[in-house]
Design brief:
The complex is a heterodimer of chains A (351) and B (74). Chain A is of the alpha+beta class. In chain A, 46% of the residues lie in helices and 19% in strands. The chains are: A alpha+beta (351), B mainly beta (74).
Chain lengths: 351, 74
């Protein structure tokens, strides 16, 4: 008897909230219809402009108008479909008896339920997905927040024995982040169940989502649940913060990687080196050895297979050799000239 | 005869439908969900689990809820 009275009291509170939810749904329908009509107005205006540009032969302006009409059509279609779905979500406020039966069935399906401070909650069995233990979850619905469902989600999924993703503590399940679940395929059916007061179905569907891994769209995939460890230092990171080295095919953290100043590719510190001339960092592919001195340098500091230093040195030597040769040539000419002068001239010259 | 059918799969369905007399739960499921496996669903009649050979009665309420639903990041 005591239990029945308690159930009736809870059911009564839920029924009041469901009535408010129905009212919210009607207001949301009006808002969406007005939104659709506004989009229709914009479409009409832009279609007129499109027609006007075409009739005047303004090809470029017509193209721009046409693009705008296309975008508006897309937005209008989306808004209209959402409005249609919303209007289709009909449900009458269930009688009290129905809600009492729902609470009893909830108890049967989940073992028990709690109702405290306007929050109805159940606890799932421990969840394991593809070998990853995630623990049990408490599914909590804030009954007082139901009427605001079109603006914010009034239900939460709380990990009771959290085993979150290594790279994000807030992700306690591939489809739960910050205690909010991503309903995915279940969204519409869940909302319909709520509107119709089918509480047990609602909670059962959340449990079904928790028991399913969708690899196409998780917050963090199970592949990366334990994070990606840097091959060099072991630091655990997520996919967005890791850098792949195409030379050794490994993942590295920000500290253990860099980028090649020549080709801009990410590269680990092990597969890159500093150019010995300009001291910038380059990947193996953008470095070469000087054929003269063997120093390792980038293509910018190399010419004809020689590093700039050696190139300069060789040019210097060549120049010196040329000068020397020139001098030698001059001397030879002088000597030759001397030999060719007559003895009398020699006497005259020598005085 | 008329029964209430609530399907929580896909877009959802909740309404009265007509079925032939003497139809069992197993037959009903095969008829309504021909390409699905019953073990992937919670099937309840009048809020209770029933054996597959339970014969549906007038005004029975049968609900089918998938045990696997794909969540997704929106």
């Amino acid at each position: 008897m005591e239990d029945t009275r308690k159930l009736v009291k809870i059911a009564d509170e839920i029924r009041s909230s469901l009535a408010e939810l129905q009212q919210s749904r009607r207001h949301e329908c009006i808002r969406k219809i007005k939104d659709s009509l506004e989009k229709l107005g914009q479409l009409n205006h832009n279609a007129d402009m499109f027609e006007s540009c075409l009739s005047r032969g303004w090809v470029s302006a017509a193209n721009m108008s046409g693009s705008r009409v296309y975008s508006l059509l897309h937005e209008f279609t989306h808004t209209t479909l959402r409005t249609k779905d919303l209007l289709g979500e009909r449900g009458e406020i269930p009688p009290l008896r129905f809600l009492v039966d729902e609470l009893k069935q909830l108890r049967q399906e989940f073992g028990s339920f709690d109702f405290e401070q306007h929050r109805l909650s159940v606890v799932t069995e421990p969840i394991t997905l593809e070998g990853f233990y995630l623990g049990p979850f408490r599914i909590e619905m804030d009954i007082s927040g139901l009427n605001d469902i079109y603006r914010q989600t009034p239900y939460f999924v709380i990990a009771l024995d959290p085993h979150p993703a290594a790279t994000d503590e807030a992700v306690t399940h591939p489809h739960v982040s910050n205690e909010k679940i991503c309903e995915g395929d279940g969204a519409m059916t869940m909302r319909l169940a709520l509107l119709q007061g089918r509480l047990c179905h609602f909670f059962s569907m959340i449990r079904s989502i928790l028991n399913t891994y969708n690899p196409d769209s998780p917050f963090v995939s199970l592949d990366e649940w334990e994070g990606i460890a840097c091959y060099e230092c072991g630091y655990v990171m997520n996919r967005e913060n890791c850098y792949f080295c195409p030379f050794c095919d490994r993942d590295y953290c920000e500290e253990c990687s860099t980028y090649c100043r020549g080709c801009d590719e990410s590269v680990c510190l092990g597969c890159s080196a500093d150019c010995e001339i300009c001291e910038e960092r380059f990947c193996k592919g953008c470095l070469a050895s000087c054929s003269e001195c063997g120093c390792v340098c980038c293509q910018g500091c190399m010419e004809d297979g020689l590093c700039l230093n050696c190139k300069e040195q060789i040019e210097q030597e060549n120049k010196e050799n040329e000068n020397q040769q020139e001098n030698n040539e001059q001397q030879k000419n002088q000597i030759k000239k001397q030999r060719e002068t007559t003895p009398s001239e020699q006497v005259r010259l020598t005085g | 005869m008329r029964i209430m059918f609530i399907d929580n799969d896909g877009g959802g369905f909740a309404d009265y439908i007509d079925i032939s007399e003497g139809m069992s739960v197993e037959q009903f499921f095969k008829d309504r969900m021909p390409d699905r496996k019953a073990e992937n669903y919670l099937i309840r009649v009048n809020r209770q689990p029933v054996p597959r050979d339970y014969v549906l009665q007038e005004n029975d309420r049968i609900t089918i809820t998938p045990t696997k639903i794909a969540g997704a990041v929106s």
